[in-house]
Design goal:
The complex is a heterodimer of chains A (515) and B (274). With 515 residues, chain A is an alpha/beta fold. In chain B, the strands form two sheets. A six-stranded mixed sheet of chain B has the order 3-4-5-6-7-8. The termini of chain B are far apart. Classes of the chains: A alpha/beta (515), B alpha/beta (274). At the A-B interface, loops of A face loops of B.
Chain lengths: 515, 274
């Protein structure tokens, strides 16, 4: 029973033995609020006692895998079962940060070639507010794509000449040309696509999946992020861990970010002369101290810290094998290209993503930056596509031949599209494109997505969507659906709301793109 | 709560082929499954199902019962959908209507959705056929299965919350612990296993003999094991096997040919064979 807050007086404080005055003794705090605090305090202690078992169970697991642990017996864990049988066991999300132009990749607009340098009709723009980067321009001259397109595969989908490798697997892809978002600048748009909301603090897609599904492999993180070495060094988008943070979910669902250097995890190796048993005892000791602290203060973050120590210890054993590519057959290097041998490149990360998927990592997100071609787009996008085309093809082909594409969802795309009009000077050889949230192209592949299809249409200027619009939250709902979740029901109570990835506005599973 | 619920059901659903009335048969079905959200306390979508008149009035979007036409009735359409569908009813985690309940509702609508007049409960071929299930209900044996798996250093995880979707055998946390002996010991729950992820484990052909007894297995992955064509012969009894992954195994052309003869198999991978 919560104690009744007392009015401030000369009596010793009954709630904490009278050793110090507390906030409960402040005369200006309303009685109702004090009562609420006390109730919260009681609840917290209750929770603390309840989840104590959790910490011990984890520790027991660490100290000996055979020790009986209590993890499965606690009701504090979320229900790890999807709502219905999933098609996807894991996903690899190839995130093209900076926003690739749809005109030079997937959204073929042949009519533009006859409109070179004409001003974008006002009727198309429809009064849309432009960014500060082009709002001051004298005109909005139409920039046709500098590169050609051809129909590829049995599905006869239009593919850019800049993507000759990806073109070979176009029959496996489901290209969506009608994505849209509200955000017109990178950070809010990237947050929207990674977390479903342009304000920081929401859990990333991978965190929701980790929370909802749990791990396949306890020895590796459930959600892994890799940033790639940048093909060019201009227009670099800042990346930060809020893009792969667990937000209000427990921090254990945040991604573990692998570094793009030669060592994916720093300080992973024990120092020379340090026995693994000694390390194990040391971590057990630290966790014991942490546990004592948890008993005293009841902060659930301490439990997270304990589990992070355990994960780090396990990764000491699992990561060296993971990052040792010597067991790859020769065909791997033909597939992903020679750069796959260089740690931290996009090609290396694609291969690593396959190895993570093989070992049961649920969600791997690869970030490839510098698609933000405001100026010198032809040169910039050529560098980008040269970097990502073959490895992307390699990843899909590799997953397919190993029988993994059936239950691995691959997603490729950026955070928004780009404008049909040139930012800055327009010539036949050179131009730039500004941000454009009203439409952009992405593709999905594998895990029950419909292969060899194109969904959604934009107008002749790829400015407005004319058929089958897909909001980012629809994409999220569709991805969750492939993992067996009704996006309306994968929720977490926070700030008085049943929070969910797709937010409060209606979202639709795009059934048309599913088998 | 639960015994009372079962008792009521037992009294509410008569044997097929009998006659019934709305108050006697249909109203109790609505009462158990629907009225919590479509009744006196809540009227989701403006729909109430707690009286004959209210049922016929329908929701804010229109009528939900077209007398004489079950397929054209929104209510019947919704309860007939796959539970994963956005429109499926009952919503939330509430269980789908039973085949007997579906038959009762279909018969009532077909008969013109009468109020107090009797109608015949007609079993339709389709209505009587149970939903195809992947495996027996894991509910009663889930604790046994998970405890057994844990003792063997593997995991048996429900594929979904639908208890007939079966269990997935996982070994990725510690593949080296999964060997033929472990597979043999899973026999008591073998019929619940619909997917077996055995990649990189120590299982051999002998283990495939155990796997061959898991009658409801749909997907089997033995990537990077020493399984040979002899092992594939043991899989012949698996009448539901849809996907077989033999990547980086010792299975040669003979085993591939054997696998191809399995009538249910639709996906076969044998990348990097011997």
């Amino acid at each position: 029973m919560p104690q009744t807050p007392h009015d401030h007086g000369a009596d010793p404080c009954i709630d904490h033995g009278g050793e110090h005055p507390s906030v409960l003794d402040l005369p200006f705090v309303p009685l109702a609020l004090k009562r609420e605090w006390l109730e919260a305090e009681t609840r917290r202690h209750f929770l603390a006692r309840g989840s104590k078992a959790l910490a011990w169970a984890g520790l027991a697991t660490l100290l000996g895998r055979s020790a009986p642990h209590l993890l499965a017996d606690t009701s504090a864990l979320p229900d790890r079962r999807p709502h219905f049988a999933p098609k996807a066991k894991r996903a690899i999300y190839l995130f093209m940060a900076g926003a690739p132009s749809q005109f030079e990749t997937w959204d073929y607009k042949p009519k533009l070639s006859g409109m070179f340098a004409q001003n974008l009709p006002e009727s198309v723009r429809g009064g849309q507010v432009l960014t500060g980067m082009t709002a001051g321009q004298v005109g909005l001259p139409i920039a046709p794509s500098f590169c050609g397109f051809s129909q590829q595969g049995q599905s006869r989908q239009w593919v850019s000449d800049l993507l000759p490798w990806t073109g070979k697997v176009v029959d496996d892809l489901c290209v969506i040309k009608s994505l849209y978002t509200e955000a017109i600048n990178h950070e809010p748009a990237i947050l929207t696509i990674t977390t479903g909301n342009m304000f920081p603090g929401k859990p990333s897609l991978g965190s929701w999946l980790a929370y909802g599904l749990g791990a396949i492999n306890e020895e590796l993180p459930t959600f892994v992020v890799m940033t790639s070495k940048m093909p060019v060094k201009s227009n670099v988008q800042a990346l930060s861990n809020r893009l792969w943070s667990s937000g209000f979910l427990s921090p254990e669902y945040s991604a573990v970010a692998l570094r793009s250097g030669s060592e994916p995890v720093l300080y992973l190796k024990d120092p020379d002369g340090l026995d693994r048993d000694v390390r194990k005892q040391m971590i057990a000791g630290v966790n014991e101290l942490n546990h004592q602290l948890f008993e005293r203060v009841g902060d659930p973050e301490i439990n997270t810290r304990i589990s992070q120590y355990e994960m780090a210890f396990r990764m000491q054993a699992s990561v060296p094998e993971l990052s040792d590519f010597s067991d790859e057959p020769a065909s791997t290097w033909d597939l992903y290209g020679p750069r796959a041998r260089e740690p931290g490149t996009y090609a290396y990360n694609c291969l690593m993503a396959r190895r993570l998927a093989e070992r049961g990592v649920r969600f791997t997100q690869i970030f490839l930056r510098t698609w933000d071609n405001h100026t010198n787009l032809p040169k910039g996008i050529k560098a980008m596509t040269e970097d990502c085309d073959q490895p992307t093809y390699g990843l899909i082909t590799d997953l397919k031949r190993r029988g993994m594409l059936d239950d691995t969802l691959v997603v490729w795309g950026g955070e928004f599209g780009r404008t049909v009009y040139s930012q800055g000077e327009l010539t036949h050889e050179n131009y730039g494109r500004d941000h454009h949230p009203r439409c952009f192209s992405m593709w999905m592949c594998g895990a029950g997505t419909r292969p060899g299809m194109s969904y959604g249409e934009t107008d002749d200027f790829s400015y407005n969507i004319v058929k089958d619009p897909v909001h980012v939250r629809d994409l999220h709902a569709t991805i969750l659906h492939q993992f067996g979740f009704d996006h309306n029901k994968l929720t977490f109570k926070f700030q008085g709301l049943d929070q969910r990835l797709t937010g409060v506005l209606p979202a639709r599973v795009i059934k048309e793109v599913l088998v | 709560m639960r015994p009372a619920f079962l008792l009521l059901l037992a009294s509410a659903v008569p044997c097929l082929g009998e006659t019934a009335t709305f108050p006697g048969l249909v109203a109790p079905i609505f009462e158990h499954n629907c009225v919590k959200c479509h009744g006196p306390t809540k009227q989701k979508a403006g729909l109430r199902l707690d009286s004959h008149a209210a049922v016929l009035v329908g929701s804010k979007d229109g009528v939900v019962i077209k007398a004489g036409d079950p397929e054209g009735s929104e209510l019947f359409r919704r309860i007939s959908l796959s539970p994963s569908d956005d429109d499926f009813m009952p919503s939330g985690d509430r269980p789908p209507l039973t085949p007997a309940e579906m038959t009762a509702l279909r018969s009532w609508i077909s008969a013109g959705a009468p109020d107090s007049a009797t109608f015949d409960v007609i079993p339709l071929e389709q209505a009587a056929a149970p939903q195809p299930t992947a495996a027996p209900d894991y509910g009663p044996r889930l604790a046994q299965a998970t405890a057994l798996a844990r003792s063997l250093g593997v995991t048996l995880a429900p594929r979904s919350r639908i208890p007939t979707d079966g269990l997935v055998l996982r070994t990725a946390s510690d593949p080296a612990r999964c060997d033929d002996a472990a597979l043999a010991r899973l026999a008591p729950v073998g019929d619940l296993i619909v997917e077996a992820e055995l990649a990189r484990t120590r299982v051999t052909d002998k283990g495939m003999q155990s796997v061959g007894g898991w009658v409801n297995l749909e997907r089997l992955d033995v990537t990077r094991t020493v399984v040979t064509s002899d092992g594939v012969t043991f899989l012949a009894p698996l009448g539901r096997l849809d996907s077989l992954n033999l990547t980086q195994t010792k299975v040669d052309d003979r085993g591939i040919a054997l696998a191809k003869r399995m009538p249910s198999l639709r996906h076969l991978w044998a990348f990097e064979g011997p």
